[in-house]
Amino acid sequence: MEMGNWNGRWRSVHIYLFFFFVFNSISQVMIGQERAQVNTTIDSVDSRLQGVSEIDGITVGKYLRPDSPVGHTDQNERPYSNSLLTNLARRDVVVSVYSLKGEQVFATKRDSEKFHFPEKRTVSRVKAAQFNGLIGRAPIRNSKNELIGYIQVVDTLNSVKRTQHKIIWIVILLTIIAFALISVFGYLLATYLLRPITVMNNTMKKVTDDPQTELRIPDLERNDELSDLAIVFNDMLDRMQRYIDQQHQFVEDVSHELRTPVAVIQGHMEMLNRWGKDDPKVLNESLQASLEETKRMKSLVQEMLDLTRADQLEIHFSKEETPVMRVVNQVFNDFKMIHPDFTFTLDSDVHSNPIVQIYRNHLEQVLIILLDNAVKYSTKRKEIHISASEDTRSVQIAIQDFGEGISEEDVKKVFNRFYRVDKARSRDKGGNGLGLSIAQRLIEGYHGKISLESSVGYGSIFRITLPIDKVETNKQATKEKSKKEKSDNA
């Protein structure tokens, strides 16, 4: 607000300075014209009196008074029709002629200004308590260049002052009109510009009051930053709503799952408390059942912890270089050992040792997520194929299972956080729907791609594509070649 006040003040100062400059320029031009007029009057009087040998009231009157025929070339010429008489008749100008002794011998009007003997012609601006105008003084010489008297022309500048007053009133009137128009235009413009902000503000308040509302900012129909902000805000609300719905659904699922183990444990404890503790067989069965349900509850609690940490997940994408096939072979061998009841197959068309820019643990984490997912949903045909291939720019890894498969509709959603294809069947399999979302985020963070092809009843294929670092790959190939040559020579 303070900054806006300062801006408004500076704009006002600029306007006042502009008007002052214009007013001062016009005033200077008018005063310059009056100064030239005073000089012209002096020249005209001096020219008329050049034929006079001595200055006195009668002689000067014959040459300067309008009712005297002296000096007129035409007796029918109207008084004050020539330039001299016109100047003498101006109501703001007083023309006085003085003798050599300083006595006033002629005056067009009463002159209250004191006379000073001038040595040469002067036209000066005089500002006094009761006078503000121009005074021109000059010696008068006859045709023989003899000094015969003096002339004084006093211009009160009343016409200039009247014009200045008119200009001031015009400027004031124009300023009032301009400010009124600017105020109206500014109000309309501000209303137009602030309308989207008002709409956004009202929408935000309603969303704050009811976070579950489906209300969104309407299309502003503007191609500007506010329209972009509204789109981003709506996207943010949609994303938050999806997260809220997913988390709400997950909490409902966990709550439902917790009811069963708690009820089972409670039932066994009540049975043991009543009579089962005296029967070793019943006691053993109840303890085993309670332990199983406790493990299940532990798994559910862990899932809830994962859910809490998911929003705090920060992935730092390092610039570490990793040989892809070493990681693939390691994870392949680990899963063969962990799941001996599964058949794992690795087909590799990679003949070099490609290097990709990815943190080794991140690549290993992605492969574990995908293989865990394949094992989890391969209930009948326990067979998993891993394949690797390369081209000049990238290396591709595919993980195929022959399990339940995913519908076309669900394929588009499996990478969403907390999404599980079949919640009823996923309860026994565990998981909270975060794995594939994390895998996608990791791969895309290293400028790679991850995709899914699936068919219900036939299984799924996850494909990973990572760009090859040619420089590091060539360096690695050179090192391996050098080692091989040394080994052969040895």
From TrEMBL:
Membrane topology: Multi-pass membrane protein
Principal location class: membrane
Catalytic EC class: transferase
SUPFAM superfamilies: ATPase domain of HSP90 chaperone/DNA topoisomerase II/histidine kinase, HAMP domain-like, Homodimeric domain of signal transducing histidine kinase
GO cellular component, one term: membrane
Cleaved signal peptide residues: none
Domain HAMP intervals: 191-245
Listed transmembrane segments: 13-31, 167-194
Catalytic reactions on record: ATP + protein L-histidine = ADP + protein N-phospho-L-histidine
UniProt keyword annotation of NAD present: no
Keyword Cell membrane belongs to the record: no
Domain Histidine kinase, first and last residues per copy: 253-470
Domain of life: Bacteria
Cellular location(s): Membrane
The EC number(s) this enzyme carries: 2.7.13.3
One Gene Ontology MF term: phosphorelay sensor kinase activity
CDD domains reported for this sequence: HAMP, HisKA
Entry keyword set: Kinase, Membrane, Phosphoprotein, Transferase, Transmembrane, Transmembrane helix, Two-component regulatory system
Annotated PANTHER family: SENSOR HISTIDINE KINASE ARSS, SENSOR HISTIDINE KINASE CPXA
Protein's name according to its UniProt entry: Signal transduction histidine-protein kinase ArlS
Record organism: Pediococcus damnosus
Origin organism lineage: Bacteria, Bacillati, Bacillota, Bacilli, Lactobacillales
